[in-house]
Design goal:
Pfam families: OsmC. Residues 1-22 are annotated as: Disordered. InterPro entries: KH_dom-like_a/b, OsmC/Ohr_fam, OsmC/Ohrsf, OsmC_Ohr_Peroxiredoxin, Peroxiredoxin_OsmC. It is a single chain. This protein has 143 residues and is α+β, with helices and mostly antiparallel strands. The protein has helices spanning 36-40, 48-70, 111-124, 126-130; strands spanning 7-12, 19-24, 32-34, 76-89, 92-106, 134-141. The protein has a three-stranded antiparallel β-sheet with strand order 1-2-3. Strands 4-5-6 form a three-stranded mixed β-sheet, covered by helices on one side. It is elongated, with a radius of gyration of 18 Å.
């Protein structure tokens, strides 16, 4: 099985004065504003790190859901957030961390098994594999 998905971006003007728009091929995002002010000054719009955080959280959550199902569990929920850190380093910026925080509620499961499956999902979800940064995971299990 193979899928190919697309996104696009435009940027009018240069540097800090420029303004951009980002879209996804599916149309889920359509011409959402982005630029220096949305990345570093909390202006309305999105930014690449926010999009990576959403991608990582959604990929990990789906991977964990599949791990739970493969382990024989049939009912539950998983909620995950991701915080992607962008830091200025020599000569530019680098994404240095993606901090996942997940909470699960799965009928018939214990915390140790949840943590085991969450660690496996963290290591093996496609977006985790894509990122070359420190990826941390905090779990909360609600029995």
């Amino acid at each position: 099985m193979k899928t190919t998905n697309s996104g696009s971006a435009t940027y009018e003007g240069l540097g800090k004065d420029g303004k951009g728009h980002v879209s996804t091929g599916s149309g889920a995002l359509a011409a959402q504003p982005y630029g220096f002010n949305t990345r570093f000054e909390d202006a309305p719009g999105t930014n690449p790190e926010e999009l990576v955080a959403a991608a990582h959280a959604s990929c990990f959550t789906m991977a964990l859901s599949f791990k739970l199902a493969e382990a024989g569990f049939t009912d539950g929920s998983v909620v995950t957030s991701a915080k992607v850190t962008l830091e200025k380093e020599d000569g530019g910026f680098t994404v240095t961390k993606s901090a996942l925080s997940t909470k699960g509620k799965v009928e018939g499961m214990d915390q140790a098994k949840f943590e085991e499956l969450a660690a496996d999902a963290k290591a093996n979800c496609p977006i985790s594999k894509l990122l070359n940064c420190d990826i941390t995971l905090e779990t909360k299990f609600e029995g």
